[in-house]
Amino acid sequence: MNVAKMIDHSLLRPELTTADVRLGCEIAARRETASVCVRPSDVAPAVAELAGTGVLVGTVAGFPHGSTTTAAKVAETRELVEAGADEIDMVLHIGRLRAGETGYVHDDIAAVVAAAQGRVVKVILENAYLDDEQKVTGCRLAEQAGAAFVKTSTGFAPGGATLEDIRLMRATVSPSVQVKAAGGVRTLDTLLTLHEAGATRFGATATESILDDWAARQRGDRTPAAAVTGDGGY
User: Fold this and answer.
1) What pTM value is reported for the model?
2) CB neighbours of 80 closer than 8 A, spacing ≥ 6?
């Protein structure tokens, strides 16, 4: 199992400087993560920083509230694709989902999928604001609209990924759609537990701690690495 290739190294906190983003890209390249997930304005520099490393550049649309118009999400996605983004993590319209406006939610997602021009689109449900029925509906709409992943959280809501939500989401979507856990994935044990439940990608800021713990366990050292308690976006 390649734990590094299940991690999207998160660089979404609003206070990050250009130097912080550059350092985060260096960490992702050195640890060979699946991707970095950067703020929209950081896509072009991240693409330049990670050229030739095999680390993908992901970014966000409609983040973190999901309440921008579909046209705005589409324009944002097109610009990000032109800047070199490989993956788009979009926030669905949480309020419209809660209101039962399924046509709006479906079309909002489908428009972003089309604008992504074949790039991976991950749909963030923001489960902290949803009941189980709404989570199931959101997952089904995301799959119907062509998303590659459904995702638990932005990391900026009151709650993040839970074991129960991962199991529910995995049971709801078909095998062709993957599940991403984000929000509170700060330790290797959490990552492994959620992976067993069906998550295949993880948003994390504690990437180095998680991977140091994994390397230690592979060497036979069962003492967990110190957990990083900062969240900041995942």
Assistant:
1) 0.93
2) 40, 43, 59, 61, 88
